[in-house]
Amino acid sequence: MEGFSDDISGKLGDELSGKRIVHCITGSISAYKAPDIVRHLIRHGAEVIPVMSESAQKVIHKNTMEWATGNEVITELSGKIEHILLTSGRGKADLILVAPATANTISKIANGIDDTPVTSVISSALGAKIPILVAPAMHETMIEHSIIQENIKKLKEHSVIFIPPRFEEGKAKIANESTIFEYILNALAKKDLLGKRVLVTGGPTIEKIDAIRFITNASSGKTGVELAREASSRGAKVTLITGPTREDIEEWIDTIKVETAREMYDAVIRKLGEAKYDMVIASAAVSDYYPSNKLTYKIRSEEVERLQLELVRTPKIIDAVKRVSPESFLIIFKAEYDVSSEELIKRGIERLRKADADMAVLNDVSKMGFGSDENQVLLLSKEGKVKELPRVRKRIMARIILDEALSVLSKR
């Protein structure tokens, strides 16, 4: 059956375009989350085939999953040998997702028991060496049971990837759809950065005026997080140094949280001194100035009619990178406000040369402001080549930036 999902397919991106994902659903109450999970994957271009155990159908009706995916739901194995069709030949899946996974199903898989469509599909996928991701959902006392932990360990030894649950209210709740999506991207992404180290700066910095007041900018930190995610999914060992952000950051990304420009500067210099980084991506919107006299107490507005601040220029992180790590491929970001494309490029060239950077990402924040899920930028190479990107979501922008950087590196 086709057409049910055409209206949302690829609406958020094409990261999973051409990928066939088999979504196995077991009898956890978290099965009610399954439609949200598959719709999120479809919005990023995936085709999803649902497989449900009998217990899962007591929680959520198969018609709901048929509607959500636009594909017929497999609820039992027939003469079509569905578990073989999904793991070999033309119908072969790119990835198996078990979400939610109960303690019962985890234990069955670990011990080779195939008595449901779900366990049969997974058993066949293990033999076919198809990536398998498992998102547990159960009470906390169950997942902490020593036998369940032994079974999880056994499956991890067979390359099964577990997506950590959220521990809340005494329960190991299923991970949210965005986290599941990131794990899937990591499992399927090309590993052209495998063995490489990448340092990313992101977010704003804040410069304190007194104990509770500060100056900053409107950066959300989305770009830095997406760059870190993309580099990590492609195999890099990533360090993200970020100012204050509300973005969720996955546990596998080594994250250093800072507040001020000086703290970010010191963290970057320290990390570059500790290890060799193949690439440095300076996407942070670092404050250009800080108050010269930071007060440790709260200024009482009743007592101060007019407040004057003396601002001092902050240290430029991008100007220090090549001095400390001359072999790093340096990508800088340059934001301007309400300028022509010609002026944007001119200023970008000047900044790129001053920092001795290898690539610059330029944008006019008057046209696409901070905090948006999308951006439209120009890529400027060290040789002066300019590439204009269309307006895209920041994750796709991150992918294009890394593609371009690797293309440049391959020619050097």
| Parts with pLDDT < 50 across at least 5 consecutive residues | none
In the CATH scheme, what's the topology name of the largest domain? Rossmann fold
Indicate the overall shape.
elongated
Percentage of residues in strands: 15-25%
Number of helices: 13
**CATH 2nd-level architecture of the largest domain:** 3-Layer(aba) Sandwich
Number of strands: 22
Terminal CA distance reads: 49 Å
Q: Order the strands across the largest sheet as they lie in space.
A: 13-12-9-14-17-18-20-21
- How would you characterize the largest beta sheet? 8 strands, mixed
Describe the secondary-structure layout.
Blueprint: E1 20-25, H1 34-43, E2 47-52, H2 62-69, H3 82-85, E3 95-101, H4 103-110, H5 117-128, E4 132-136, E5 138-139, H6 140-143, H7 146-157, E6 161-162, E7 166-168, E8 171-173, H8 177-188, E9 197-202, E10 207-208, E11 214-215, H9 222-233, E12 237-242, E13 254-257, H10 261-274, E14 279-282, E15 289-291, E16 311-313, H11 317-324, E17 329-336, H12 341-355, E18 359-364, E19 374-375, E20 378-381, E21 386-388, E22 392-393, H13 394-410
Parallel strand pairs: 1-2, 1-3, 3-4, 4-6, 9-12, 9-14, 12-13, 14-17, 17-18
Antiparallel strand pairs: 5-8, 7-8, 10-11, 15-16, 18-20, 19-22, 20-21
Helix pairs in contact: 1-2, 1-8, 4-7, 8-9, 9-13, 10-11
3D architecture notes:
The protein is elongated. With 412 residues, the protein is α/β, with parallel strands linked by helices. The longest helix has 17 residues. The strands form six sheets. It has an eight-stranded mixed β-sheet with strand order 13-12-9-14-17-18-20-21, with helices on both faces. The chain has a five-stranded parallel β-sheet with strand order 2-1-3-4-6, sandwiched between helices. The protein has a three-stranded antiparallel β-sheet with strand order 5-8-7. It is built from 13 helices and 22 strands. Strand 1, helix 1 and strand 2 form a beta-alpha-beta unit. It has two domains: 169 residues, 3-Layer(aba) Sandwich (Rossmann fold); 214 residues, Rossmann fold (3-Layer(aba) Sandwich).
